[in-house]
Write a structure and sequence with these properties.
Number of helices: 4
Number of strands: 0
Order of helices and strands: HHHH
Shape: elongated
Oligomer: single chain
Largest sheet: none
Structural class: mainly alpha
Strand content: under 5%
Length: about 110
């Protein structure tokens, strides 16, 4: 089971990296690359599965805060994909900032 959790964790981190990288790369042309959509779905699904595998050992408050942030990022990515004219540098900065906050919470909140 540790191997499965490890693989899911790697996929989860890669998903967040794709979202952050896509948002930062899109700042030059103020576009949201399509990879960010796949990255956020990967991060969201693997995060939910990892939480399910942790069961009662999970810090439920931390998981709830991280889930809310992940859902906000998901909404921003989906809206940016549907209405690309709304994507600005500030919009991409918000996506990037929320990703960094979510990763920081994962690492620093014990």
């Amino acid at each position: 089971m540790d191997t499965v959790q490890g693989i899911l964790l790697v996929l989860h981190l890669i998903g967040w990296a794709v979202v952050l990288g896509g948002a930062l790369a899109g700042m030059k042309s103020t576009t949201l690359p399509s990879g960010t959509f796949h990255g956020i779905l990967t991060a969201l699904v693997t995060g939910i599965v990892l939480t399910g595998l942790l069961g009662a050992d999970a810090n439920h408050v931390k998981i709830a805060v991280k889930l809310v942030i992940a859902l906000v990022v998901t909404v921003l990515v989906v809206l940016g994909r549907r209405r690309p004219e709304k994507v600005t540098r500030g919009y991409l900065g918000a996506v990037s900032g929320l990703v960094v906050v979510n990763v920081a919470l994962a690492v620093l909140w014990h």
